[in-house]
Specification:
Layout (H helix, E strand, L loop, with lengths): L1 E2 L7 H6 L18 H6 L12 E5 L27 H13 L4 E5 L9 H9 L5 E6 L6 H10 L3 E5 L5 H8 L5 H13 L6 E6 L8 H11 L2 E6 L17 H9 L4 E4 L9 E5 L6 E5 L12 E4 L4 E3 L6 E4 L1 H5 L4 H13 L19 H4 L2
Parallel strand pairs: 2-3, 2-11, 3-4, 4-5, 5-6, 6-7, 7-10
Antiparallel strand pairs: 1-13, 8-9, 9-10, 11-12, 12-13
Helix pairs in contact: 3-4, 3-11, 4-5, 8-9
Bound molecules: S-adenosylmethionine (SAM) and iron/sulfur cluster.
The site of S-adenosylmethionine has 20 residues, from β4, β6 and α12.
Length: 369
């Protein structure tokens, strides 16, 4: 087991600091879930939530340093620590056998992963309902997008936090422009991918005057724009409650310009709230209120990091290292058991704002959003 906190360096944190690979042992395995759960054949946690959505962080590397995610001095894992494409697929096959229907590739920046195309092709050969990828949109060429579409990628989610060129480099600390990302969004549409989603992290005093402009963009380009409340997952640890712009504030800012209609208000399993434009215009607005209205009771996700740490929760302070099993001849059944045991330990929720809340040692780029 890899426990976090108390300032102690865990084996996986050692990797984050670019030190020699530690000796990983069986102690990094999860405790055994009840036999009855193994007999069920699904990925169910002790709170009866069932996992259908697997998020693979295929690299911790990124060409941006977004202010709410990474710091310029952050170090990357050594290459030998990263899972190979075939190791990811071994995990995916076990997860599919246990009922996973959707895989999202993320990172770090997944378009930097050297064999991304072969991972997408392999996923396309599996029986999945949805294969998605989250990207900062800096590196999308038409031929690549067309290849991904042909291989089975369903859609892309882009991250874009401002529509003002003068703010872009201050937020992302990169040379990519707003125009570059908007171009990538067009490329995705031209490749025939499903309607793109755009993630906007709502940040106090940074972009809160732009929410209605993003709504205009949703209407003009038929996009699904999703505002995410800023979460304490930044490696610079600058998160403060006062920097969070709440769901209520986002919706108020948009409705000052465009009336919205809440879609499916009664769905208790939704992790975000979706709104249509009341006048029937194309596009959609979503809000992911992870901080002010957590949706932990509806969570159906499991995450695996670039070096094989299985994380039952975005905010886990405990994670399980599947890499030794992958590299020491673990069978399909062994991997399935490991996933079932890991999911059984999923915490009931996060406690952001509570006195005992402990920010995970990993930032979002090392977890996979
Ligand atoms: N690099 C890709 C990108 O930015 O789209 C994929 C990885 S990124 C970690 C995935 C998502 O996490 C992005 O949409 C990003 O905006 C979001 N994110 C990162 N740090 C966050 C934070 N502290 N709070 C809320 N969302 C965050
Ligand atoms: Fe990189 Fe994505 Fe994090 Fe921005 S949000 S630093 S693009 S991983």
């Amino acid at each position: 087991m890899v426990r976090r906190g108390c300032g102690a360096l865990t084996p996986i944190m050692g990797l984050l600091m670019d030190r020699p690979l530690p000796q990983l042992d069986a102690a990094t395995s999860p405790p055994t879930a009840p036999d009855a759960q193994h007999a069920r054949g699904d990925l169910r946690d002790s709170q009866d939530r069932v996992i259908h959505d697997l998020r693979l962080s295929i690299t911790d590397r990124c060409n941006f340093r977004c202010i709410y995610c990474m710091e310029p001095g952050d170090r990357f894992l050594p290459k030998r620590a990263l899972l190979s494409a075939s190791e990811y697929m071994t995990i995916v096959d076990a997860a599919i056998a246990l009922g996973v229907r959707k895989v999202r590739l993320t990172g770090g920046e997944p378009t930097l992963y050297p064999v991304l195309d072969s991972i997408i092709s392999e996923l396309g050969r599996r029986n999945l309902d949805d294969i998605a990828m989250t990207t900062n949109g800096s590196l999308l060429e038409p031929a690549r997008a067309a290849r991904w579409k042909a291989a089975g990628l369903t859609r892309l989610t882009f991250s874009l936090d401002t529509l003002r060129e003068d703010r872009m480099s201050a937020i992302t600390r990169s040379k990519t422009t707003v125009a570059d990302v908007l171009h990538s969004i067009n490329v995705a549409a031209e490749a025939g991918l499903a309607r793109s989603k755009v993630n906007v992290v709502a940040l106090r005093d940074v972009n809160e005057d732009e929410f209605a402009d993003f709504a205009d963009l949703a209407r003009e380009r038929d996009l699904d724009i999703r505002f995410i409340e800023f979460m304490p997952l930044d490696s610079g640890r600058s998160w403060k409650p006062g920097r969070v712009v709440s769901e209520t504030e986002v919706i108020e800012a948009i409705t000052a310009r465009h009336a919205l209609q809440l879609r499916d208000p009664m769905n208790p399993h939704s992790t975000s709230r979706h709104y249509d434009f009341a006048d029937g215009a194309p596009g959609r607005i979503g809000v992911i209120p992870s901080v002010t209205r957590p949706f932990c009771g509806a969570c159906n996700r499991l995450r695996v990091t670039a070096e094989g740490a299985v994380r039952p929760c975005l905010f886990s302070n405990t994670e399980w290292d599947i890499r030794p099993l992958l590299r020491n001849g673990g069978t399909h059944e062994d991997i399935m058991r490991f996933l079932v045991d890991s999911v059984w330990t999923k915490q009931s929720g996060h406690s952001i704002g509570a006195e005992d809340f402990q920010q995970p040692d990993r930032g979002m780029s090392a977890i996979g959003g």
